[in-house]
C-alpha cells in the first residue's frame, strides 16, 4: 500500500503538489468517476475541488466523500469568473497544510463544469507565481460519453476543446454504444488529439495508477513512456503526421525538426508563433534537440501560456524518437494549410542568438521566460572543430580561428 500511495502522489517534483484537472462535457460521467475514485483507500490523501455552474451548487451532493479536503467553487465556471477563487482555494489549502491543520495532501483533483474550457485553469496553475511554486499541473483527464460524443463534438466548441487539451481520454458508457459507433468515436478522437492516451472506463471506474501522471512533470526524472507522451508521431517511417478532423474545426499536425536547433532562436520563434495565432493554438508539446546538448528538452504550451522546459535524462532508445530528431505536436482551431505552412517555415528559419535576443525585446513575448534557461550558445559556422566544441563567451561577432 505504501508503494502504491507513493506512486499515486507523483511525488516529488521540486516538492510541489500535483494537480489533475478532470473535465468532460455535460453528462459524460465525471461525477460517477469521481465517486469511484474518492471511495478508494489509496485516494485518501487527495484533495478534491468541485466547480459548479449556476447560482445554487448541487453536484457536490452526489459526491459520497465530503470532508475537509473537498472544496466547492460555486456561482461560476473555472474557465472564467472563479479563477481567482481557485487560486485562493489552493493557497488556503497550502496554508492549512503548512500549519498542520490538515494532513499533507498528496494530490489535488479539480472537477470542472461540463461547459468549462480547461485551458485557463491550466494557465492559472502555470502563471500565478505563488501557486506554481507550490503546485504543478500533472495532466488533464477528459471523460468522453461514447454514446453521444460525435454529436457533442460537432455542435459544441467546449467539447472539442476538452478533447483537444486532454492527456488522457476516458471513454465512458462504452456498453451503451454499438461497435460501429465506438469505432467512429475512436476515429474522431484520433483526429482531434492524436497524442492523448485513450482508456475505457469500466462501470465508471478506472485505476488511479493509470489515470494520473499524464505529463512530463510526474517526477524529477523523465517518464519511461516519453514516446507515448508525444504519441502524435504514430509512424516512424514518416517525418510528418497530419490528421484532419471528421467534424468541427480542430486539427493537428506534427513538425519534425531534423537538425539540432539553437535554443534562443527556437524560444523566440515559438513565442512569436503563439502570439501570432493566439486563441487558435490550443496546445503545443514536443521534444527539441538543442544544439550543444546530448539530452532532449521537453516543451509544452497551452494557449499562449508556456510550461518551464524540462531537460530529460536521455533520448528514447526505441520508437520513432530514437532518431533524436525533435518533434512538435500542434493542436488548434482553424489551422488551415496556409497557417501550417507558415508555422513550418518559421521553425525552419530560426534566428541566431544575437538576432533572437534583439527580437525578444518585444513586450509580452509568451516564451520570454525560456530565455532565462541555462542553455548552450548556438555554434556558428566556422566555430566547429573535430577535436573541440568551441563556444564564444559573448554574443557579438567573433572571427573563427581554428
Automatic annotation (TrEMBL):
<protein>
    <submittedName>
        <fullName>GTP-binding protein</fullName>
    </submittedName>
</protein>
<dbReference type="Pfam" id="PF02492">
    <property type="entry name" value="cobW"/>
</dbReference>
<dbReference type="InterPro" id="IPR011629">
    <property type="entry name" value="CobW-like_C"/>
</dbReference>
<comment type="function">
    <text>Zinc chaperone that directly transfers zinc cofactor to target proteins, thereby activating them. Zinc is transferred from the CXCC motif in the GTPase domain to the zinc binding site in target proteins in a process requiring GTP hydrolysis.</text>
</comment>
<dbReference type="InterPro" id="IPR051316">
    <property type="entry name" value="Zinc-reg_GTPase_activator"/>
</dbReference>
<keyword id="KW-0378">Hydrolase</keyword>
<dbReference type="Pfam" id="PF07683">
    <property type="entry name" value="CobW_C"/>
</dbReference>
<dbReference type="InterPro" id="IPR003495">
    <property type="entry name" value="CobW/HypB/UreG_nucleotide-bd"/>
</dbReference>
<keyword id="KW-0547">Nucleotide-binding</keyword>
<feature type="domain" description="CobW C-terminal">
    <location>
        <begin position="250"/>
        <end position="347"/>
    </location>
</feature>
<dbReference type="InterPro" id="IPR036627">
    <property type="entry name" value="CobW-likC_sf"/>
</dbReference>
<keyword id="KW-0143">Chaperone</keyword>
<dbReference type="InterPro" id="IPR027417">
    <property type="entry name" value="P-loop_NTPase"/>
</dbReference>
<comment type="similarity">
    <text>Belongs to the SIMIBI class G3E GTPase family. ZNG1 subfamily.</text>
</comment>
